[in-house]
Design brief:
It contains 2 helices and 3 strands; from the N terminus they run H-H-E-E-E. By secondary structure, it is an alpha+beta fold. Strands 1-3-2 form a 3-stranded antiparallel β-sheet, with no helix packed on it. A hairpin with a 2-residue loop joins strand 2 and strand 3. The longest helix is centred in the N-terminal third of the chain and has 10 residues. The two termini are 25 Å apart.
Length: 81
C-alpha cells in the first residue's frame, strides 16, 4: 500500500534506516535496488549481522567505495536471482 501511494505522488525513492529485521524484510519483498553499507574499523564484541532470515536470493554489485576517515561506505546495487 505504501509503494502504491508513493507512486501516485510521483515518489520513486525511499531511504530505509532501521535494524537487521527491517533491512531483511525489504530485501525479502524484492523492493530494494541499492544498498549503502557503512563499515567501521572499530568493533565492539563480535558485531551483528546486517541481514537475517533472507528467503530471497540476491547478489550485491558494488558500484562505489568511499572512505570517511577510517570508516568505509560501500554503495551496491541489488540484483535478485
Amino acid at each position: 500500500q505504501i509503494f502504491t501511494d508513493m507512486a501516485k505522488r510521483n515518489l520513486s525513492s525511499v531511504l530505509v534506516e532501521g535494524g537487521q529485521q527491517m533491512y531483511s524484510t525489504f530485501l525479502n519483498a524484492g523492493v530494494v535496488d541499492k544498498v549503502y553499507l557503512f563499515t567501521a574499523r572499530v568493533r565492539y564484541g563480535a558485531g551483528i549481522k546486517t541481514f537475517v532470515n533472507i528467503s530471497r536470493s540476491y547478489r550485491l554489485k558494488k558500484s562505489q567505495v568511499k572512505k570517511y576517515g577510517s570508516d568505509i561506505l560501500e554503495e551496491s546495487y541489488v540484483h535478485y536471482k
